[in-house]
Design goal:
The chain has 10 helices and 12 strands. With about 450 residues, the chain is α+β, with helices and mostly antiparallel strands.
């Protein structure tokens, strides 16, 4: 660069000197061969000067382009008049690039580690960016919004920001998703930023809390009314004199029957209230590392004789061996409830069809396995009629039952136990029979 500057200065000085000499020669001699020669030399110097300017311009362009591309190895010479300004611009660009890279790395790390699933799409639904939480939440990698079925259609057709909830099936499990869409201009292009999170656990927690509050209120109110009723019924029965005369003996018998009925019903109501308390006062789980296989074996052994007496085949299948943090007593009670329900259903089915369970090929299978989400589960499946479609949404509601003598708390209590363990009790729809699965979180 230094040589270029001296060359440019020398060329300019030579051009000025030769121009003055040519002018003087023209004034003295007019047009001559010497004047033509000087003119040609001047033209050559002018071309040389323009060539030097273009070379310096190209060099400056190369340096600026390299700086724009992040290459700071090129620079201007120490004697270049633009060197100071160039160094300031270079330092500012390097600082801005470093800050931008730090911010990008921070945002990338944030997206990787948060549980909120984030998708960035173009206006055609193609996914440009996503984080690992998408696969974890939805159970699949998403490259286009049409993979989300009706949810994707809604996200793609909307022209405004919105928030909504939707049901989502990941394998055999159902989830409730909260979905938010934000349409923004990013780098001069319209982008759809979609955030998705599961609110299934929160809804279940709210539901369980509501049931607990309801049962506490009902327990308090009904118990306060039952106690004096039962006392009065027994008192009246004991105070009835044997010599009490009626115009008709049937009247006396009716009175005695009415008092006995009141006493009996209040006793049953008291038992019902006791079951209420089971739901609202479930003890906290005492977690211990437990092997699920021996527990499964104990439950099968407990019901094997009953199953044999009614010609029901009871089997167990263990597909994995793993210690799980749980309360053995509570989880074992859940399995007992599920197996007892299955036995009752198969016996009832045989009674209705006037056939033995053996003729109906009645079977109950208990399975220990692991699902696609790497969650361990205990499953109780039977060959009964299954759960009718119209009551599926009600089977875990406290005190709802389809059995004539059922209390309606078995499934509700079992599910609450599983939720307290950080898992869930779900009904898995099969082509034949009923299947309940205890999933551990």
């Amino acid at each position: 660069m230094m040589h270029s500057q001296w060359g440019l200065a020398g060329s300019l000085a030579a051009l000025i000197s030769l121009t003055l000499l040519a002018a003087n020669l023209f004034l003295q001699q007019g047009l001559s061969a010497s004047l033509v020669l000087l003119s040609l030399i001047n033209i050559g110097l002018i071309g040389h000067i323009f060539n030097l300017f273009r070379r310096q311009q190209r060099q400056a362009e190369m340096v600026i382009r390299a700086l724009a591309n992040g290459d700071s190895t090129l620079g201007l010479g120490k004697h270049n008049p633009m060197r100071q300004q160039f160094e300031q611009v270079k330092n500012q660009m390097q600082t801005a690039r470093f800050n931008a890279e730090q911010q990008a790395q921070f945002l990338q790390a944030l997206l990787i580690h948060i549980d909120l699933a984030v998708l960035v799409c173009d206006n055609h639904g193609k996914v440009i960016e996503s984080n690992p939480a998408v696969v974890k939440l939805l159970g699949q990698s998403v490259t286009h919004l049409n993979q989300l079925e009706t949810i994707g259609d809604l996200l793609l057709s909307s022209e405004t920001n919105f928030r909504t909830t939707s049901q989502w099936h990941s394998g055999e499990q159902q989830d409730t998703l909260s979905i938010q869409l934000s349409i923004a201009a990013i780098q001069g292009k319209n982008r759809r930023v979609i955030s998705i999170q599961s609110i299934h656990d929160q809804l279940q927690h709210k539901e369980q809390q509501a049931y607990k509050r309801l049962t506490k209120v009902l327990t308090h109110e009904v118990a306060n009314s039952i106690t004096p009723l039962a006392s009065l019924a027994h008192t009246c029965t004991s105070l009835l004199p044997k010599t009490l005369s009626f115009h008709d003996d049937e009247d006396k018998q009716d009175l005695q029957l009415a008092l006995n009925t009141i006493a009996s019903r209040t006793q049953h109501l008291g038992e019902f209230i006791a079951r209420f308390r089971q739901v609202s006062q479930l003890p906290a789980a005492k977690l211990h590392p437990t092997d699920l296989a021996p527990m499964l074996h104990r439950v099968v052994a407990l019901h094997q004789q009953h199953a044999n007496e009614h010609s029901i085949t009871l089997t167990q299948h263990t597909h994995t061996q793993q210690l799980v943090m749980l309360d053995p007593a509570q989880i074992e009670q859940v399995l007992i409830n599920l197996v007892k329900n299955a036995l009752d259903v198969l016996e009832q089915q045989a009674t209705l069809k006037s056939e033995s369970p053996d003729q109906l090929n009645a079977r109950i299978s208990l399975t220990l396995g692991q699902n696609s989400a790497q969650q361990y589960y205990l499953e109780v499946a039977d060959t009964g009629p299954g759960i009718p479609e119209h009551v599926l949404d009600m089977i875990f509601v406290p005190f709802f039952t389809t059995k004539q003598q059922g209390s309606g708390i078995g499934l509700s209590l079992s599910r609450q136990i599983m939720l307290n363990h950080g898992g869930d009790l779900i009904y898995v729809q099969k082509p034949h029979g009923a299947c309940f699965r205890c999933v551990f979180g």
